[in-house]
Amino acid sequence: MARGTLITIEGLDGAGKSTLAEALQREMASRGVRAELLREPGGVDLAERIRALVKDPSLTVSPRAEALLYAAARAQLVAERLEPLLEEGAVVLLDRFVDSSLAYQGAGRALGVEQVRAINVFATGLLAPDRTLLLRISPDAGRARQRERALEPDRLERENEEFFEAIACAYDELAREEPGRVRVIDASQPAEQVLADALAAVQDLLV
Fold first, then answer.
1. Which of 64, 108, 163, 184 has its CA 20 to 30 Å from the CA of residue 29?
2. What's the rounded Cα separation, in Å, for the pair 29 and 93?
């Protein structure tokens, strides 16, 4: 059996990652492709508990602890769900993966992209996406979308503009470094066009 395909979706808060992931799953199902949809941090019980911790606005979490918590959640997801699904030959759509930590903790928290990459190499056992869809949106536009959702902002969403500018720049740098893996999509477009661009960006993996 051929190994499965891992497609990750990245971008700032408010870029529309979850919306795109769900739309991709529906579109693939209509084409007879079964795609498993998972999110980070989360996807398995242990990781969901860590998700609650890292997002809790009442908690103080140091940058290094934050990076390690995300890596721990990721390690459990890889072991419990990702590797088994890929061994079964499944297509996996993953809402965030290592690139999020490189951007948010490596750049946003100023821990250093390479330092955060190192702990995630250990956490994932070198598992890498076959394709990454980077939804590019300005921090201001992402914030505006979050306000429209009228949800209470979590611990990270309460950070300042400089934090999100650093993350956006880090994502752009990751895209420049790995153009074969990372495909940039303009997230300010209508959802239908974002989906069309995403399908075009992964079409070669689904034939």
1. 184
2. 12
pTM: predicted TM-score of the whole model, two decimal places = 0.94
For residues 86 and 88, what is the distance between their CA atoms, to the nearest angstrom?
5
Exposed (0-12), middle (13-18) or buried (19+): which is 130, by Cβ within 10 Å? middle
DSSP 8-state secondary structure symbol assigned to residue 15:
S
Strand, coil or helix: what is 44? Answer: coil
CA angle, residues 176, 156, 95, in degrees to nearest 5: 55
Give 136's strand partners: 186
Tokens 């998700």, located at residue:
51
Task: Give Rg (Cα) of the chain.
Answer: 16
Which residues does 147 contact at the CB level (< 8 Å), separation at least 6?
none
Going by their DSSP bridges, the two strands 91-95 and 5-11 should be labelled as parallel
Give the other-Cβ count within 10 Å of 2's Cβ: 5
pLDDT, tens only, 5-49: 999 999 999 899 999 999 999 999 999 998 999 999 999 999 999
> Length of the chain, please?
207
Beta-carbon contacts of residue 86 (< 8 Å; ≥ 6 apart): 3, 4, 5, 6, 92
Give the domains, in start order, of the chain with CATH numbers: 5-206 (3.40.50.300)
3-state secondary structure of 9: strand
